[in-house]
Specification:
Number of helices: 4
Radius of gyration: 31 Å
Shape: globular
Distance between the termini: 124 Å
Length: about 220
């Protein structure tokens, strides 16, 4: 009898990272994100451990899928292992290792769920990345489930409450967002500068007034000649 596989959804937590957005004109206006997606050999909030060898083997298998732009993620985890196009919000474009941390990069899609995800991030909502896969494992002496070699990584979804430490991503300002006009308030101007400005304004007003009176008298005198 074929062994039944369980659905596993896991990711990173505790606010160290947020979805790292970058809208650049050089990338045709694409909205990108990057950060820590998963962590090997660490106990997550769901009391599971993913051995490095298991995750690394899955990453290698996903490289051709990524290169073909086929690794699609959804906004929130579905209840099954199927990737649903009508609910997709982003596409994963790169995966790589930094020590035991599996890092990733992706783009937010111009879909209804993608636009919702982008809107949440632009409003400062904390969004994490969470893996979705199927497989089995065994419990160690401490009751921790160690994911086995049968595990198959399907994709990474955007979620509100990830389980792997520091799997939140950071938002970075785009070139447009980096532009902040300098505003000078009265607190930024010294008293002497304000007084000097008032004096100058008064002088200009007095000159204008005298000029008007002279012009008026000049017309009256010419009219009597």
């Amino acid at each position: 009898m074929e062994e039944k596989l369980s659905l596993f959804v896991d990711s990173c937590d505790n606010g160290g990272f947020y979805l790292n957005l970058n809208e650049s004109a050089t990338d045709k206006g694409l909205t990108k994100f990057r950060g820590k997606f998963q962590e090997a050999e660490a106990i997550n909030k769901n009391k599971r451990i993913y051995p490095f060898a298991v995750l690394d083997e899955n990453v290698k298998k996903l490289i051709p899928v990524i290169e073909a732009r086929g690794l699609i993620g959804e906004l929130d985890h579905p209840t099954d292992s199927i990737v649903h196009f009508e609910k997709c919000s982003h596409i994963i474009t790169k995966l790589w290792w930094e020590g035991q941390n599996l890092m990733g990069e992706g783009e937010i899609l111009n879909t209804p769920h993608g636009r919702l995800l982008k809107s949440l991030l632009n409003d400062g909502v904390r969004v994490g990345i969470s893996s979705r896969g199927v497989g089995n494992g065994r419990n160690d002496e401490n009751g921790i489930l160690v994911i086995g070699e049968s595990y198959k990584l399907i994709t990474f979804d955007a979620v509100a409450d990830p389980s792997t430490h520091s799997a939140f991503q950071e938002k970075v300002a785009s070139k447009k967002e980096n532009y902040n006009p300098i505003k000078i308030s009265s607190n930024d101007v010294s008293n002497s500068a304000i007084q000097e400005s008032v004096k100058t304004s008064r002088k200009q007003a007095l000159v204008a007034c005298l000029g008007g009176l002279i012009e008026c008298h000049k017309k009256n005198i010419l009219g009597k000649i």
